[in-house]
Amino acid sequence: MDRLIQLGADMADLWGRYGGSYLNGIKNTLILALVATLIGCLIGFICGILQTIPYTKSDSLVKRFFLTLIRVIVRIYVEVFRGTPMVLQSVFVYYGLPYLSNNALKFDNIWMAAILVVSINTGAYMAESVRGGIMSVDTGQTEGAKAIGMNHFQTMVYVILPQAVRNIMPQIGNNFIINIKDTSVMFIIGFTEFFAAHRAAVGATYQYFPSAAIEMIGYLCMTLISSFLLRKLEKRLDGSDSYELAQADQLVMAAGTYSYPDRGTPFDEKSVEFKDGIGQESENSGNGPEDSENRREKE
Fold this sequence. Notes:
Blueprint: H1 2-51, H2 61-82, H3 86-100, H4 110-136, H5 139-147, H6 152-182, H7 194-205, H8 208-238, H9 250-255, H10 272-286, H11 288-298
């Protein structure tokens, strides 16, 4: 118990002296994670769509060649950036490009380097998520869109992608939460995010565990709040559970089977035609065999 009290006192002392540095690190972490996730989603959507462009043997050789080449390039990009740690990617981008280009390619802005690294890493994961989301949409949706004259671009924009986005929304949120934590490796290139603030405080005070406890609480708060907001967004995308069927459908009206809600349909008990038919049948059934003979004599 005494050690817990001492830990709380050390954490309060650290926060009192370096609270501004911790908060600045939290701000930089959230900005980097949000911007990089958005850019990564854009990269992932482009790569995912390019991988799902259909082609057949009847298409021209040029089209098949370019689509195959695009898929090979996207596959190499995905496998390389999914198969290597982000910390090594940041070292390669920030230090490797100047080394290989004799300082022709170097970053004067540390923010640009950090955003680039996290974005391309996120894009590699999102490319497969988007491809899976597009493939998860029933093929009948595509066939129906083609049946009404839509081309591939229109089908993707108006039919497939709206459904695919909802399917991959949990993965987008998952990547954002991962980026909040994985930005901690950006200290390797000198980016001052939350973990860098922890390292600076430890270097000045040598209180590693109290500072690490502050870091853990901070990351946990960021991820929990993000998860809560993302679940709210998912529920909003699901729409309301209560809905009413549309009554003024133009195709139904044109087909001649439309009837006003207060009239019912010709096939149920609310219909005027149905009630008239019941009345006529009852009149005919109530006449008896004598009336039937009289009608035959008159005929």
